[in-house]
């Protein structure tokens, strides 16, 4: 089953749900916990499916997206920033992990 989990979707939803939880509850730690659950789930699947190198690369992408969303949010607003970095994170997850499982339906950008 773990080979068929779309981590691109999990990673993007994790960033969005984490931010949504933090803003709706007013609790940043709770939002961080939601994001961490999604992130750790992705890491589990990446390690099992793709190995440590890919897991580290994609974990760094997710952490960078989280940090960059705060910086970008100052320029374009919080929600647009979160949605943009979530889309970028999903693309990297698709490119480096999910496309191996689901095929390269993403077109020419996904083929090497």
Q: Features of this protein?
A:
single chain; mainly alpha; 4 helices; 112 residues; 82% helix
Structure characterization notes:
The chain is mostly helical. It has one domain (2-103). Helix content is 82%, strand content 0%. It contains four helices and no strands.
Order of helices and strands: HHHH
Mean pLDDT: 91
What is the domain total for the residues? 1
Radius of gyration: 14 Å
Mass-distribution shape: globular
What's the topology here?
Layout: H1 7-25, H2 28-50, H3 52-76, H4 78-102
Task: Provide a compact summary of the structure.
With 112 residues, the chain is mainly alpha-helical. Helices cover 82% and strands 0% of the residues. The chain is globular, with a radius of gyration of 14 Å.
